[in-house]
Amino acid sequence: MLLIPIYTATIFLSAALLFAVQPLFTKMVLPRLGGSPSVWSVAMVFFQGILLLGYAYADILTRLVRGPLALFIHLAVMLGGAMFLPVAIAKGWGLPPAGHEQLFLLGLFAVSIGFPFFALSANGPLLQAWFARSGLGQAENPYFLYAASNTGSLLALFAYPFVAEPFSTLSFQGSLWRSGYYLLIALIAACGVLVFFRSEGEAVLPHAQATEAPPAFGRMTYWVVLAFVPSALMIAATAHITTDVAAAPFLWVLPLSLYLISFILVFSRRTFIQQETWIKLQPFLLALLVLTLALDIRTWLIVDVALHLLTFFVTAMICHGLMAATRPQAAYLTRFYFCMSLGGVLGGIFSGLIAPHIFSWIAEYPLLVVAAALARPGLAWPRGKEARLVVTLVVLVLLAALPGLYEGFSIIPPYNWLVWGAVTILIACAVASRELPLRLALLFAAVFLITRIYPPNVRHLETVRSFFGVHKIEVTSDGRFRVLRHGMELHGAQRLTTDDGKPVTGRPELSTYYHPDSPIAEAIDAVQDKKQGPIHAAVIGLGAGSIACLMKPDDHLDYYEIDAEVIRIARDPKRFTFLRDCKPDANIVLGDARLTIAEAKDARYDVIVVDAFSSDSIPVHLLTREALRIYLSRLNPGGIIVTHISNNHLDLTGVVTETAASEKLIARLYDEDETVGGDPMIKFSTVMILARNNDDFGLLKDWDLQTPEPGEYPWSDDFSNLLGPLIAKFREGD
Predict the structure, then answer these.
(1) Do residues 215 and 148 make contact, with C-beta atoms less than 8 angstroms apart?
(2) Which residues are within 8 A (CB) of 520 and not within 5 positions of it... i.e. 6 or more apart?
(3) How many Å apart are CA 363 and CA 350, to the nearest integer?
């Protein structure tokens, strides 16, 4: 009777350790990549790949090795993984080479945590295979243990950002994880003993399982495809939500959680909602999603996020449900899990590694929405009248798209109604054709193609993609501004025409967060006034280069920018002219600012501006005690540190104040008041200034003095907590 609870507990703990080590180690690595959200995508691909190797190892071991020898081999593998503990970055890995960040990350993950993760990843299918040999009645269907595995993964996933991260340091988390790993080894040994050293000898597979025909190649390919779609869609949806919808903390947890929940539900012994319900609901959700993506429609944040997540979840339930319905009996479960893992890792590779290199925008998301339509039951190659209808549709869409392929051709307001009308008709036809997966997918593809060629909300759209995100260069619908966006966040805007339509000439006008009356402009003015001569300034984060126009001709300006694509955009006068017209001699240093400033041992600055936030994402490593020490080592006597902390989801005032106080710095705040009815390109900001003593503030002494609040803790490389600032922002809105 002990067999079921011990096996359940062992699989539960193994899955929890698997999903706890991913955010733990990824958080250690993030500072080396500037806190880029893309690190999470690459990490997911790596862990999926190692999971595949673990499943392959489990399948081979189960098929080729019988009896206690299998237990001894796996215990040796687990002990081999223990040799790489505690969890830490391997020695000898420095800065990632520009343009090869993905390969750098994969190598770093492999040598640092690859072996322990490989050992853990084999436990799920291996222990289920051992349980199937126990001879118990439940052994004929060990798939319920897979639900236990995903439950452990889900709890660990939520426990990390909401329990482990806010209340413990990275070093403590690593020690706790190592203890759990050692306990798991003991539990695995107990599981093996209960099966392989029973009094009646080695258990054998029940007769019905042992004689079932092995899965055919076509059936295994079907599993791979069904696993591919939700895995790739999860990463693509996460990338879209956390950049183009809201870069809110912990938002990445939700798609992954729903992914795990779908496995728990489809492999559960109970059926809560019939598969037919998901299949009927999906076309309507897909139609709404296609409409919002194609026309860039924004409603309320909760509604937007809910639509993306619900559509993904329903798609995952359909694909995983079809896999569960066609799963083999226990004799071939390791092969089934291998196919499932293979599809998952291929989906991760497509969305996490391949797509960022071949697409200049998050094109994989629309493609996978189309693939979700194709993955519906009933897909068949069209014949007769249906085939002619499909060919006609393809030809008509291509003919409509051809004019837009010529450079300079666009649908501009007030002719947007043409695009909106075409999209509405196509989506209505798609909903009417929801029982035909191929026609449904083609109609959705037509919507995405037309709206990409004829973007309805801007006069001109250009996208540039790098490891650090997608940058959009847009000309607003009224033709007055060219703007640079990262996700939904403005990184600069340059006026092209005056209000009466005449071209703007001369020195660029400043707007967004850098307008002449902005806190950042006021801070630069104060430093110039105090110095009464040329100043030396460092700016972390280039954007479009707007801050260059706050400098005087004799001032010295160093930019520190991690993204080479941003540098190309800012330096291209066909896009923006801030650098060319205001500070053509500005020095731009490529690389993570914290590391490159530390290497610039001879640099000394009167002001250091930390302005590296992208789409509300927080480069935590630029706000820690260790980062402040680096800035102070490069700061002239009387110099100040300016931190731009505007954020839609986090209130960073308290943590920056506490961290500054821990380094004996004084903090002052300017939270700019918003006004209604002004220039739409004027953005109001929240800025903090840090200085060694009060006299260093100069003209800024009227900014609000900040004092540490009880319960706040300074951020360091060993501890940071986004939950506290998130709660503080929520309370601010009350």
Answers:
(1) no
(2) 513, 514, 547, 550, 609, 611, 642, 644, 685, 687
(3) 11
Rounded CA-CA distance 372/312 in Å is: 9
- Would you give the distance in Å from CA 551 to the centre of its chain? 35
Please state, in angstroms and rounded to a whole number, the distance separating the CA atoms of residues 96 and 402: 41
Q: For 418-471, how does the pLDDT look when each residue is reduced to its tens digit (9 = 90+)? A: 777 778 888 888 888 888 888 888 889 888 888 877 776 666 778 888 887 788
Q: Give me the numbers of helices (H) and strands (E) for the chain, helices first please.
A: 26, 12
Enter the tokens of residue 726.
């998130």
Which residues on adjacent β-strands are paired with residue 643? 610, 688
Buried/exposed code over 74-105 (b: 16+ C-beta within 10 A; e: otherwise): bbebbeebeebbebebeeeeeebeeeebbebb
Helix or strand run (H / E) with residue 348: helix 333-349
Pairing of strands 469-475, 666-671: unpaired
Considering only CA atoms, which of 86, 93, 94 is closest in space to residue 113? 86
**What letter represents residue 368's amino acid?**
L
Task: Provide the token pair at 602.
Answer: 């001879």
3-state secondary structure of 480: coil
Contacts 24+ apart (CB under 8 A), 5-10: 6/187, 6/190, 6/191, 6/194, 7/127, 7/130, 7/131, 7/145, 7/191, 8/145, 8/148, 9/187, 10/123, 10/127, 10/184, 10/187, 10/188, 10/190, 10/191
Rounded to whole angstroms, the Cα distance separating 71 from 234 reads 35
Cβ contacts of residue 370 below 8 Å, gap of 6+?
441, 444, 445, 448
Residue 536: C-alpha distances to residues 131, 248, 594, 608 (Å): 68, 34, 18, 9
Pseudo-torsion of CA 611, 612, 615, 620, nearest 10°? -110
pLDDT, tens digit, for every residue of 122-176?
Answer: 998 888 888 777 665 566 666 667 777 878 888 888 888 888 888 888 889 999 9
Ordered strands of the 469-475 beta sheet: 460-466, 469-475, 481-486, 489-495
The pTM assigned to this predicted structure is: 0.82
CA distance 645 to 642: 9
H or E stretch covering 102: helix 101-121
Q: Which two tokens stand for residue 649?
A: 């989801």
What sign does the CA torsion over 314, 315, 318, 323 have?
negative
Residues near 272 by Cβ (< 8 Å), separated by ≥ 6? 265
Q: Are strands 469-475 and 481-486 parallel, antiparallel or unpaired?
A: antiparallel
